[in-house]
Amino acid sequence: MNALIAKLEALQDLLVRHATGTPADDLEYRVARSEVLADPEVRDVLPQFLKDCRDLGQFWADVKNRYATYSHRRQYIWDGFRPALEKLEAPPQRPSDALVSDALAAFSKESVHAIWQRALARRDSDIDGAITLARTLLEGVCKHVLDELHVSYVEGDELPKLYRLTAQHLQLAPDQHTEPIFKQILGGCIAVVEGIGAVRNRLSDSHGRGKAGVRASPRHAEFVVNLAGAAAMFLVATFEARKGTG
Fold first, then answer.
1. Of 111, 114, 115, 202, which is most buried, counting CB atoms within 10 Å of its CB?
2. Tens digit of each residue's pLDDT (9 = 90 or more) over 221-239
3. How many Cβ atoms sit within 10 Å of the Cβ of residue 94?
4. How far is C-alpha 163 from the chain's CA centre?
């Protein structure tokens, strides 16, 4: 992945030089262009001018006719390569990430979805921060649902209490069901949420540690973030279903 980023940046720099008065090597351009166009990871997000211009002569004719100034030409090239570079530099996605992202974006893009994206971004690079954000995500979803339902809560309530209140109003409390398997599953959801709160207090960056303090590993962060995402998506889906049926 890093090699592909370097290849794209080198190709971008070559085109910037050529468009701003420093002729570049046409063979180098054609070889690099062929390599990146053949890569399925970025093929669909490469700039259109790269797809259309088979050599530097074609590219020069395109950029010269579009923009007269060097600054506009640079920006044109940078803007063209940005989608591919951002895609490669984004945190790696797991199969469930997109499902949770779609559900949370539709529910609250500016708030809980933003927290989810931050948790994903830190899952590998900032383990403690990711665990903290997992709890923050669930707290945010619970509060948003309760606000939508016009249910009051205390701002300082801990996650387990917020979740139990939310579950009660979404008919997800175990004692609201008679079927044993549903009672067991919904009770398990409460245990998961309480566990996320506990692991956040124990392993995240929310409290200082002594010399012998327990430290989380990447697998802990991934597990906790994934659990929080699944629980958040379940709450949102249940809320939407209840809202749809009145």
1. 115
2. 889 999 999 999 999 999 9
3. 15
4. 24
